[in-house]
Amino acid sequence: MEANKKYFSAQLMAWHANENERSLPWKSEQDPYKIWLSEVILQQTRALQGLPYYLAFTEAYPTVRDMAAAADEEAFRLWQGLGYYNRCKNMLATARHISSNLGGVFPKTYEEILALKGIGPYTAAAIASFAYRLPHAVVDGNVYRVLARYFGIDAPFDTTAGKKSFSELAQELLDKKNSGAYNQAIMDLGATVCTPRNTRCEECPLQKKCVAYNQGLIDVLPVRSKKQTVRTRYFNYLLLKCDGKIWIHKRTDSDIWGNLHEPYLIETEQPLTAISLLNSSKFKNLHIQNFKINFEGRTTQRLTHQLINFNFFSINLEKKITIHNVNGIWLNANDLKKIAFPKTLVSFLKNNLYF
Ligand code: SF4
């Protein structure tokens, strides 16, 4: 086992120095602000998908003080399409905290970085090692996969005990003098070679001593404690239109897409027909009469743990209504493009020439 650990770290570092061709703008970046920004963007997002967002944010906000001064709405617009909007919200709060309370200087120890809002152990280790060369190993899905396969670990990685033992192993394997390079190496190996599917073992520097490769366990490892469940939801959107304006409101923080905007939503646990929509209490809350409802289309969006089914309806009203218990506004259709919406709503509004 000890020999295998030494082999693991040595092979990984040699591969990184000589063969790792993964080139991304945040690699070898030493500015903790930009490293943090890249790590926040890359949570739940593939590198190539995150790249244009990273470039847009670094151009709009080259420093943490620039980000601190940004208007929420402008930052949310830049974030549009990345999902998990709490990440953007926490990022703005943290930038403002650093700017106002820490003199605009990013903290320099792992513990201080970890204390920042929205930063967990993985991001703190990435910033500490890349920016300050501190000896903290990153542990994320890529790392669980590489370690579980190479060492043949069949204990679930998603339990408290599993997380602790994988973290201890990752910390033990870390090249303490080159923590940034080591962390980059294991993340890149997991992202490009030891991938969840279509694993490229023929190119892997660890193949010779890899338990999963040698025992045919690649499809079995890593192991989860339980199957992930997917929640199915039905978002029935009603576009209320009147006099060139559309009714919209801001979603709350307590659900997906917090702080983004949407038309009037009637959410159900089951598929809904136009008739049952009209009979729902949320529709009756509108108190409208003499209307014609139009079906505008449907689509779906898959999130990590949710499947959202969208139905779109529209109603042309003769006069504007006030909807009780919901804070909404009537917005000029021309101004819709200035507002941040969830990705699927942007596509729908664009495709239907709302903007
Ligand atoms: S040999 Fe294959 S399974 Fe083993 S670490 Fe390398 S890529 Fe992963």
Q: Please report the first level of CATH classification, the CATH class of the largest domain.
A: Mainly Alpha
Any idea what the CATH architecture of the largest domain is? Answer: Orthogonal Bundle
Percent of sequence in beta strands: 5-15%
Shape: elongated
Radius of gyration: 24 Å
End-to-end separation: 61 Å
Number of distinct helices: 15
Bound molecules: iron/sulfur cluster
Structural class: alpha+beta
Percentage of residues in helical conformation: 40-55%
> How many separate domains?
2
How would you explain this protein's 3D organization?
The N and C termini lie far apart (about 60 Å). The longest helix has 17 residues, at about 1-20. By secondary structure, the chain is α+β, with helices and mostly antiparallel strands. It folds into two domains: about 1-215, Hypothetical protein, domain 2 (Endonuclease III, domain 1, Orthogonal Bundle); about 230-350, Nucleoside Triphosphate Pyrophosphohydrolase. It is built from 15 helices and seven strands. Strands 1, 2, 3, 4, 5, 6 and 7 form a seven-stranded mixed β-sheet that branches. Helix 2 packs antiparallel against helix 8. A hairpin with a 2-residue loop joins strand 1 (about 230-240) and strand 2 (about 245-250). The chain binds iron/sulfur cluster. Iron/sulfur cluster binds near residues 150, 194, 201, 206 and 212.
